[in-house]
Q: What sequence folds into this?
């Protein structure tokens, strides 16, 4: 069983549509990160959420951390082809190893013109 | 500033061979972590090095090893390659210490894609 369950696994939409991807767990986290990985690239950090109930916006992307700090969602408004990529949520499992993250399996998003 | 650099980008090996991958972190970053990414298992943590010391290790066999040099550059080695070792190997760097300098962000390289035949 994955610590972080991401859904859906795959999402194909047209430009201009909205989409939401989810990252769920039964564990409580002090923070959660979202990364996006484009083909041929390494993951790039989009946001870190820390406080339960927190909402952060990055242009057309809205991130929410659940009140109980067990889950998170990413909502994209009016998707563009540049939003295509693998969206990964990740948590840090230990405070003494800064480089060790546990990743979800990811949601592959494809935005077509 | 320059990002994380990984070499080589692509390589093909046969079963039983060994491979060494290299990673140059962002200047000033002291932590280097390695991840394996496969379609079936996703991104999995291999190990982290900080100031030339292994700080943490993932659940991989002893065939996977690494080291870090005094300039923070890191290498990972996989011996006796198996077909299942085919993957994208990603290196990530960060300042590596809690406090103001480290936001918790990992900066990834583009990866080294290993194919084992």
A:
């Amino acid at each position: 069983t994955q610590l972080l369950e991401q859904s859906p696994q795959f999402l194909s939409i047209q430009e201009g549509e909205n989409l939401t991807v989810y990252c769920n767990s039964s564990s409580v986290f002090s923070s959660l990160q979202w990364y996006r990985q484009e083909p041929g690239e390494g993951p790039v950090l989009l946001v870190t959420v820390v406080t339960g109930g927190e909402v952060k916006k990055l242009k057309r992307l809205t991130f929410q951390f659940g009140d109980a700090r067990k889950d998170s969602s990413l909502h994209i408004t009016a998707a563009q082809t540049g939003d295509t990529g693998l969206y990964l949520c990740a948590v840090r499992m230990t405070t003494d190893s800064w480089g060790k993250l546990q990743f979800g399996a990811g949601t592959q998003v494809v935005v077509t013109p | 500033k320059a990002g994380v650099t990984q070499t080589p980008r692509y390589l093909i090996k046969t079963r039983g061979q060994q491979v060494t991958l290299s990673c140059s972190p962002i200047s000033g970053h002291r932590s280097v972590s390695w991840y394996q990414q496969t379609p079936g298992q996703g991104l999995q943590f291999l190990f982290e090095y900080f100031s030339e010391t292994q700080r943490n290790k993932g659940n991989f066999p002893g065939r996977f090893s690494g080291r870090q040099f005094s300039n923070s550059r890191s290498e990972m080695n996989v011996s006796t390659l198996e077909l299942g070792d085919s993957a994208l190997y990603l290196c990530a760097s960060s300042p590596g210490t809690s406090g103001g300098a480290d936001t918790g962000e990992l900066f990834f390289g583009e990866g080294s894609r290993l194919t084992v035949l």
Summary: The longest strand of chain B covers residues 42-50. The radius of gyration of chain B is 14 Å. The interface with chain A takes residues 4, 31-33, 42-45, 48, 50, 55-56, 58, 90, 92, 94-98, 102-106, 108-111 of chain B (CB under 8 Å).
